[in-house]
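Consider this today:
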Amino acid sequence: MSHVPRFFATLHRQLRIALLPALSLVAMQAPVHAQTMPSAVAQAPAASPASSTDDTLYQALGGTAGIQKLMEAFVRDLVADPRTSPFFKPLDLDHLRAQLSDQVCQVSGGPCLYQGTPMKKAHAGVDITRRDFNALVEVLQHSMDEAQIPFRTQNALLARLAPMHRDIVNAP
């Protein structure tokens, strides 16, 4: 019986990874709203900012404290992962955590306001491939799993973040 939960966890992760490119393509069809985010590799305009009255995703992520805790783990995991560490180790990690927290807070419908460098500009000159982007998403998924964020909430956040793909990936 212990193999059954492991099987479903593996299937769950594989489905999310398989669906990410589809989410990115669907999100590319949606209009992008002008928003920004500062830091060399981890800022982007929100896919479709939640209205100021819809903070359901923000609340599901644990509000500001939950998002900050998640971003602490995410940045730690980005630096630890050999696929993503070259992009993040040279950065001011405290600044990165703060900026990511503000961005996720805003994108999820929270009260935060991210004010920073536009994604396209922040990533100009940094050769980021689709593989690099997907590795970052896998790290985020792992961080959310560790934080025991429900699958539905994870998918809601990923759907809002997916449009960043077009402004981040800039290399073949």
